[in-house]
Design a protein that fits this description.
Helix content is 30%, strand content 19%. The longest helix is centred in the middle third of the chain and has 13 residues, at 125-137. The protein is globular and about 65 Å long. The protein has one domain (3-344): Alpha-Beta Barrel (TIM Barrel). With 347 residues, it is an alpha/beta fold. The chain is built from 12 helices and 13 strands. The strands form 2 sheets. The protein has a 10-stranded mixed beta sheet with strand order 1-2-3-4-5-6-7-8-9-10. Bound molecules: pyridoxal-5'-phosphate (PLP) and iron/sulfur cluster. The site of pyridoxal-5'-phosphate has 7 residues, from strand 2 and strand 3. Residues 88, 90-91, 94, 96, 145, 315 line the site of pyridoxal-5'-phosphate (PLP).
């Protein structure tokens, strides 16, 4: 067994097996884990410094997951937008293709927690074939995002088969992989994997780090291996209460990502997915965080702040409100120091 498979196989899936030093109500957490699966592999577990810290909150079940009720199960209407199973086609030119059902760690805030790691996310050879056929007869789709679950938990051969099938479809120009593996199981990113992926350019990979404590030497090695294979890396961070809703934490994370050659792509407002309400932060807090980044750190480190609107209405990006004016008029702006500045617009 390769080393990453061994690490994955040694994951804790029952709260009773969490380290004895963690004082928790194991029975209550077991109830949560029976609704929403838990999986913490030894690598990610080792990043926890103490109960309740930002790594813990992302990985260890919380009784609040079962009590909040404002959020629907599928706020992004992904099921309704899937004309074939596991292929979410919301925007005309791009599609989200779920190719694997499990992950290296089950994030407690997962937007697809209704089905990730459970029987409800079923991926069969037939459903894959149906998705390829759909993409073939829908040439408007030129950008395909592989997600799940985590596509990088597939073995190299299976993933290579999927990429090969996609590359047979001439209208698919861009392939993107969405994977948390560089953060949660970086040893999965082997030299062999990087070499295989390299054959399918233009291929992009968006990963997902939420806290500077996740930027370990192992994560850096994984990202460097992918970057060396010519794969542009982006990061989709989610704002999470008690994890990263702090301008200093986000700034450190964004700059740390650049160090390992990952370009911050999106910071997301938390989705309204059932079982994740306790993680959601006010939109204004996100706007304030953007305000502390803009003009105050390298522009490369600044992602777009976006909300994925409920009902499948798509992503909308948000900026601090800093421009006012009209056609042929003087526009006033608030700059990064909070000063009011003006500019005369052409009539
Ligand atoms: C987010 C998303 C995309 C990709 O959006 P970009 O803004 O291009 O990154 C595509 N399809 C679905 C269903 C999505 O949720
Ligand atoms: S890695 Fe992504 S899909 Fe998997 S549990 Fe985390 S957020 Fe959900």
């Amino acid at each position: 067994m390769s080393s990453w498979r061994k690490i994955l196989a040694d994951s804790i899936t029952d709260p009773a097996d969490l380290p004895k030093s963690f004082r928790i109500d194991r029975d209550r957490l077991a109830e949560v884990a029976s609704t929403y699966p838990m999986r913490i592999n030894p690598y990610y577990l080792n990043l926890i410094k103490q109960p309740g810290d930002p790594i813990w909150r992302q990985a260890v079940p919380d009784p609040l997951e079962r009590t909040n009720r404002v959020c629907p199960e599928d706020p992004l209407a992904e099921e309704a937008l899937s004309r074939v199973p596991n292929l979410v086609h919301k925007y005309p030119d791009r599609a989200l293709f779920l190719v694997h059902s499990s992950c290296a760690m089950y994030c407690r805030f997962c937007t697809r927690k209704r089905k990730v790691g459970t029987e409800r996310l079923r991926i069969s050879h037939e459903s894959m074939q149906a998705a390829f056929a759909y993409l073939e007869r829908t040439p408007a789709v030129r950008d395909v995002l592989l997600s799940g679950g985590d596509p990088l938990l597939l073995d190299d051969d299976r993933l290579e088969w999927i990429l090969t099938e996609l590359r047979k479809i001439p209208s698919v120009e861009i392939i993107r992989i969405g994977s948390r593996v560089p953060c949660t199981l970086p040893m999965r990113v082997t030299g062999r994997l990087a070499k295989m992926l390299k054959k399918f350019h233009p291929l992009f990979l968006n990963t997902h780090f939420n806290h500077p404590d996740e930027l370990t030497p192992e994560a850096a090695a994984a990202c460097n291996r992918l970057a060396d294979a010519g794969i542009p890396l982006g990061c989709q961070t989610v704002l999470l209460k008690g994890v990263n809703n702090d301008p200093a934490v986000i700034k450190k994370l964004m700059n740390g990502l650049l160090h390992i050659r990952v370009k911050p792509y999106y910071i997301f407002q938390g989705d309204m997915s059932r079982g994740t309400d306790h993680f959601r932060t006010p939109i204004n807090e996100g706007l304030e965080i953007m305000d502390t980044l803009i003009g105050r750190t390298s522009g490369l480190a600044i992602p777009r702040f976006a909300i994925d609107l409920p009902g499948g209405n798509g992503k909308v990006t948000m900026l601090p409100d800093n421009a006012r004016g009209g056609e042929g008029a003087t526009w006033t702006f608030r700059n990064y120091l909070g000063q009011t500045c003006s500019y005369l617009d052409p009539a």
